[in-house]
Amino acid sequence: MKGIIDFHTHAFPDVLAEKAIGHLEREGNVPAQLDGRISSLLSSMDRCGIETSVVCSIATKPSQFEPILKWSESITNDRIIPFPSFHPDDSEAINRIAIIKQRGFTGIKLHPYYQDFNINDKKMFPLYEKMAEENLILVLHTGFDFAFERIRKADPAKILEIKNAFPSLKLVSTHLGAWEDWGEVERLLLGKEIYMEISYSLEFLDQGRARDIIMNHPERYILFGTDSPWTDQQKTLEMFNSLAIPADLGRRILRENSVALLSSVS
User: Fold this and answer.
1) pTM recorded for the entire structure
2) pLDDT tens for residues 110-160?
3) Contact 52, 5 (CB under 8 A)
């Protein structure tokens, strides 16, 4: 099998990485496993056979759109696929989506806690419609977030509402459907054609339950992800391998599903 694709990582410009990682560590009380630089991510990828990583940015205010876009362009190569971000409250948000597509990117990252929105807020619907129209992938933080109060901004019922309203939207739900809301994932999302990537979930689920969720979801809708630098890519890979997923499905999750999804953007 060719190299693994990690569909969910984060990094920062070198000049900002130390400050950004320190702030996020304090805010979430979670130690980072890397220093937040692209060079460190690439070294981690080399150690565990990861060929490509999707690097997700989060615009926490509208003014960050242009700097994130320019940095994303600067790091794009055959191993790093950046997903830029815009802020939903940006008055130019619709145009930002068009620019992201025009600049050749395949996807966008949004985070309802860091950007302060409910994913089913009607103000978001024109943005989802535009992303679907532009045939872009949306990696959307779903479930709770360890750094924030447990307000239901991105739960499975809301995910399902979005998917029903925009069936052509290439929505990737993070953390095996919804972080620490896996009972609702099992009740509402399993069996639906909704992408789930597995990052930051295997650490919190027993092996049997994690395996059951994966095995009971459509096989082409599960993606490998780690959320590096907040987890160690090698450890996530080892935890995934310990689930004893059938070999053919394992190949799909570790690479083939991501290749198909990324290749579907034109």
Assistant:
1) 0.97
2) 999 999 999 999 999 999 999 999 999 999 999 999 889 999 999 999 999
3) yes
Q: Which two tokens stand for residue 64?
A: 């960050």
Domain span holding position 250: 4-263
- Residue 251 structure tokens: 């190949």
Question: Quick check: 11 and 55 in contact, CB under 8 A?
Answer: yes
Q: In this structure, are residues 59 and 87 in contact, taking their beta carbons and an 8 Å threshold?
A: yes
Please list, in sequence order, all residues whose beta carbon lies within 8 angstroms of the beta carbon of residue 122, skipping any fewer than 6 positions away: none
Helix axes 93-102, 65-75, angle to 10 degrees: 10
Comparing CA positions, the residue from 138, 144, 131, 147 lying closest to residue 176 is 144
* Domain count along the chain: 1
Distances (CA, A) of 85 to 202, 228, 241, 251: 26, 18, 32, 29
What is the rounded CA–CA span in Å between residue 84 and residue 67?
Answer: 10
